[in-house]
């Protein structure tokens, strides 16, 4: 019918084009060290880097290894370096990159490389666990009631609740690259989330932990972490808030 034809004609065509992805590979069974490998792949203007990696894995080389789960910026499992910058592969539209040049993809830095784009996240999660990222309260709410909190008190840590533990911030930090003992931005962000929660009673314990030589004072305020965060968290500001709280208390 005429209406259907008009509706179909209005749907814009999705453009297809070819790109070259140069991926830093490491297969521990055969490689002594990581090496770059080039792949030509056809993609669409709606594709993300994750889609291109899938196409390579499914059509060209099934051994290509990377983590992913939700594909929608929620699970935090596909942080990687894309053209030298930490990003989530599932949130990086290929058409937003310079597609006239090869696109370089490699694992995030500063954590032990396991295979291709997969690193050992255990040191990252060990630092996260050390700051006690859970509510610690000395009293119980009244039976059948929730712990109450004002809107203003909730706003104090609103930004840091958004963390998805992707490690993009910590692995973009030059201090973390040179000193694997540094807690790193993500652990501090998750400490901030509870330090400034009026329902929590262990803020001072966390501030003591972060007042360590490997704690907040290692931060050199380079803002790499804030630039890298796919959730738009003001990571450097959160670290500054914690530094202030160590010096002057949380009030
Ligand atoms: S603060 Fe941002 S970059 Fe860092 S782990 Fe959380 S979501 Fe990822
Ligand atoms: S796959 Fe879940 S955040 Fe990208």
UniProtKB/TrEMBL annotation:
UniProt domain 2Fe-2S ferredoxin-type: residue ranges: 17-111
Swiss-Prot/TrEMBL keywords: 2Fe-2S, 3Fe-4S, 4Fe-4S, Iron, Iron-sulfur, Metal-binding, Oxidoreductase, Tricarboxylic acid cycle
Pfam families on file: Fer2_3, Fer4_8
InterPro entries from the UniProt entry: 2Fe-2S_ferredoxin-like_sf (IPR036010), 2Fe-2S_ferredoxin-type (IPR001041), 4Fe4S_Fe-S-bd (IPR017896), 4Fe4S_Fe_S_CS (IPR017900), Beta-grasp_dom_sf (IPR012675), Helical_ferredxn (IPR009051), SDH/FRD_Iron-Sulfur (IPR050573), Succ_DH/fum_Rdtase_Fe-S (IPR004489)
Stretches assigned to the 4Fe-4S ferredoxin-type domain: 153-175
Domain of life of the source: Bacteria
GO terms of biological process kind: respiratory electron transport chain; tricarboxylic acid cycle
Cofactor dependency: [4Fe-4S] cluster; [2Fe-2S] cluster; [3Fe-4S] cluster
Pathway listed: Carbohydrate metabolism; tricarboxylic acid cycle
Cofactor binding note: Binds 1 [4Fe-4S] cluster.
Signal peptide location: none
GO molecular function, one term: metal ion binding
Catalytic activity annotation: a menaquinone + succinate = a menaquinol + fumarate
Cited CDD domains: fer2 (cd00207)
Record-listed E.C. numbers: 1.3.5.1
SUPFAM superfamilies cross-referenced by the UniProt entry: 2Fe-2S ferredoxin-like, alpha-helical ferredoxin
Keyword Translocase listed: no
Similarity remark: Belongs to the succinate dehydrogenase/fumarate reductase iron-sulfur protein family.
Annotated protein name in UniProt: Fumarate reductase iron-sulfur subunit
